[in-house]
Write a structure and sequence with these properties.
heterodimer; A: 116 residues; mainly alpha; 4 helices; 85% helix; B: 237 residues; alpha+beta; Alpha-Beta Plaits; three-stranded antiparallel sheet; 21% strand; rod-shaped; membrane (chain A)
Chain lengths: 116, 237
């Protein structure tokens, strides 16, 4: 459990240390990629808790979602429609659902643990 | 083993997410430079900027001045040149009044022995044309007959027993023929040549006496009054 958290911290530290900046016009893509990655991550955690976790699904979903979100945003920019909002909406909704499911599972686990 | 691998995947994913978040954070939250200058510093800075502005304005004004000067010079020179050319051409064509040294010839009827005018007083066009030809031969620049300027297209002809020069009748004698030459010397020459010319006798045959006055320094000849109509001339391509 602590390893992923540590990975997150390490990633943040590396990101801050490298002092990489992307042009402001591309920050949209990055933000949506982050959202997609978070969605995949929480989806993975939920699957893990529900015992339906699949390595391939998780890894492929991670990259595919990021790419899809970014390309959707790209398409939206070129079509003049804010398509990235669709991705934000979809990922946002999924994120909340996943977190809600995780919370419920954890709650049931915790209550069942407490009953024991 | 499986759990460790799972953990590894999650960690890698989490670290990538962290990395992206960090970059996004850095990109979005550009360090805000807070303005900590006080009033006086601001004032000084403003003064500096104002000076710069005034310098720039001055420069702009200078450049614009130069520009307008050039423009006006160009305009002026063009206009002046055109005007000069026009004047020259007008003088050459006989459209403008001219003055200069020359002689005045007066044609008048011959008196008979009793001091009476001989009734027949008719100026023949051919004689006038001959006179003009001779005058031109002897260096006349501008000629006027009875106040009518003689130019290249001037017509002298007989219309119903009245000699007309460009539509102006020459039926009231005496009249004056004014001739302007290049200079006083030429005027003198012209005077002498006309004096000994046969044309005086030719006029006498027509009962006309030609009085030749001594050259004068300032003779005025009016310009051609009508518009010159050119029908058979075209500019060369």
């Amino acid at each position: 459990m602590w390893l992923p958290l540590m990975g997150l911290v390490i990633g943040v530290i590396i990101g801050l240390l490298t002092d990489i900046r992307i042009p402001p016009e591309y920050s949209n893509y990055l933000s949506i990629a982050i959202l997609a990655a978070l969605d995949t991550l929480f989806g993975g955690i939920r699957a893990q808790l529900q015992n339906i976790y699949d390595e391939k699904v998780f890894v492929s979903g991670f990259f595919f979602n990021i790419l899809l979100a970014a390309s959707l945003a790209f398409l939206g920019v070129h079509l003049g429609v804010d398509l990235y909002l669709a991705a934000v909406f979809a990922f946002g909704v999924r994120l909340f659902q996943n977190i809600a499911v995780i919370r419920r599972i954890l709650l049931t686990k915790w209550t069942s643990n407490g009953e024991k | 083993m499986v759990g460790a691998q799972k953990n590894l995947y999650f960690s890698v994913t989490a670290s990538i997410i962290g990395f992206m978040v960090a970059i996004q954070f850095q990109t979005v939250s550009e360090p805000v430079n807070r303005d900590t200058r006080d009033t006086w510093e601001l004032r000084n800075d403003l003064m500096g900027e104002k000076e710069l502005q005034s310098e720039l304005l001055q420069e702009i004004r200078m450049v614009e001045d130069t520009l307008t000067k050039y423009e006006s010079e160009r305009e002026m020179s063009k206009g002046e040149l055109l005007k000069e050319t026009l004047e020259e051409l007008k003088i050459e064509a006989g459209m403008s009044d001219v003055s200069g040294p020359g002689i005045i010839l007066t044609l008048q009827p011959v008196m008979n022995e009793l001091g009476h005018e001989v009734p027949m007083s008719y100026v023949s066009p051919s004689l006038l044309q001959r006179l003009i030809n001779e005058l031109n031969m002897y260096g006349a620049l501008h000629i006027s007959i009875d106040g009518q300027r003689v130019i290249n297209t001037t017509v002298i002809r007989d219309i119903g027993t009245v000699t007309k020069i460009d539509g102006h009748s020459l039926n009231n004698l005496p009249f004056k023929i004014k001739v302007i030459t290049k200079g006083s010397e030429e005027a003198e020459k012209l005077f002498k040549r006309i004096e000994i010319s046969d044309i005086v006798e030719d006029f006498f045959v027509d009962n006309l006496q030609m009085m030749i006055k001594k050259p004068e320094e300032d003779i005025e000849i009016p310009g051609y009054q009508d518009t010159i109509r050119i029908r058979y001339m075209e500019p060369v391509e």
